[in-house]
């Protein structure tokens, strides 16, 4: 990254997310770049990339964009009113969703085993 920040293509490559997704996250206020070039191109800081990576980690657990935004805001400002409750709620929900996801993966593995025996 240079002193000005990373352009969206570099961030997409680093995070494994599409440019379209990154633009959407900016449009809906989940993760907005810290800066812009004089020509209006988005410039992302390392902190922005860390936030994007948290979103990427929340996606498989099917959190909504609003839930992601609430969690990210709470995580960045843990002493703000309601932040601890939000973090705890998301933590519990993530544990529940992960358990369900693991169960579905188990079913998929069983199915694959059945197919391989045919």
UniProtKB/TrEMBL annotation:
Record has DNA-binding as a keyword: yes
Keyword field contains DNA-binding: yes
Protein name according to UniProt: MerR family transcriptional regulator
UniProt KW keywords: DNA-binding
Domain HTH merR-type: 5-74
Signal peptide interval: none
One protein family per Pfam: MerR_1
GO MF, any single term: DNA binding
Organism encoding this protein: Corynebacterium humireducens NBRC 106098 = DSM 45392
């Amino acid at each position: 990254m240079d002193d000005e920040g990373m352009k969206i293509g570099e961030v997409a490559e680093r995070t494994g997310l599409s440019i379209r997704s990154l633009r959407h996250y900016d449009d809906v206020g989940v993760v907005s770049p810290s800066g812009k070039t004089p020509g209006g191109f988005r410039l992302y800081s390392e902190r922005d990339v860390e936030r994007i990576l948290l979103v990427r980690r929340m996606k498989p657990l099917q959190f909504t964009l609003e839930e992601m935004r609430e969690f990210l805001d709470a995580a960045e400002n843990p002493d703000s009113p309601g932040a601890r409750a939000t973090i705890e709620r998301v933590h519990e929900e993530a544990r529940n969703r992960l358990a369900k996801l693991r169960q579905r993966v188990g079913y998929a593995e069983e199915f694959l085993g059945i197919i391989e025996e045919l």
